[in-house]
Amino acid sequence: MDIRLMVQSTPNPNALKFVLNIPVKTDGKVTYKRIEDCVHNPLAMKIFGLDHIEEVFFFDNYITVTQNGDADWDVLEEQVKKTVLDNIQAHDPNFKTEEPKRALPATDNPEVARVEEILNQTIRPALQMDGGDIQIISLENNILMVNYQGACGSCPSSSMGTLKAIENILRDQYNQDIVVEMAPY
Questions:
Q1: Backbone phi, then psi, for 65, in 5-degree steps?
Q2: What is the rounded CA–CA span in Å between residue 53 and residue 89?
Q3: Residues 165 and 25: beta-carbon distance below 8 Å
Q4: How far apart are CA 107 and CA 60, in angstroms?
Q5: Around Cβ 26, how many Cβ atoms within 10 Å?
Q6: The pLDDT of residue 182
Q7: CA dihedral of residues 179, 134, 38, 34 (deg, nearest 10)
Q8: What is the pLDDT, as a whole number, of residue 141?
Q9: How many CA atoms lie within 13 A of 98 on its CB side?
């Protein structure tokens, strides 16, 4: 199979989305913030081996790479493309990952399941199109704690504009008193 790679910009100036015509993660998604976290994913380790890499996010058929802002994207983009294309044949998209311990399973709570359903219908498609996603950390006393993933994690607009948009949608479709906040790291 002829493997093709397309690069897409994201709203985050420090993140690019590398889209392939084959899956890079068949089940779920994973964010790596340190090379030590991706020992079971050699492709992610190779990407982290490049200078200036802060985060690597695998989902479906794309990899979002976030840099620290010190690199020239023209140079770094070519290095990431070469790294991905040189190593994708050996990459197993069925690699297993440990679920983040901070994430709240939707099946444990019907209220969380309802919020997940609203996010899946309204918010996630846009975030995923931009190379990121959102994870629910907790829902207590009408306070929803979330964590951004991929390009959304360090995007300037995610901490204010996007967070308020999510809150407004959830107030309209779920509970008018809900407050959405970023989870502390």
A1: -115, 130
A2: 22
A3: no
A4: 22
A5: 11
A6: 81
A7: -50
A8: 93
A9: 8
What's the pTM?
Answer: 0.77
Spatial separation of the C-alpha atoms in residues 158 and 123, rounded to whole Å: 12
Res 160: pLDDT: 67
Which residues touch 178 (CB under 8 Å, ≥6 apart)? Answer: 142, 143, 144, 167, 170, 171
End-to-end CA distance of the chain: 41
**Which stretch of DSSP H or E encloses residue 167?**
helix 163-173
- Residue ranges of the chain whose pLDDT lies below 70: 98-107, 154-160, 185
CA atoms within 13 A on the CB side of 131: 29
- Give per-residue burial for 41-55: e unless 16+ CB within 10 Å, then b: bebbbbbbebebbbb
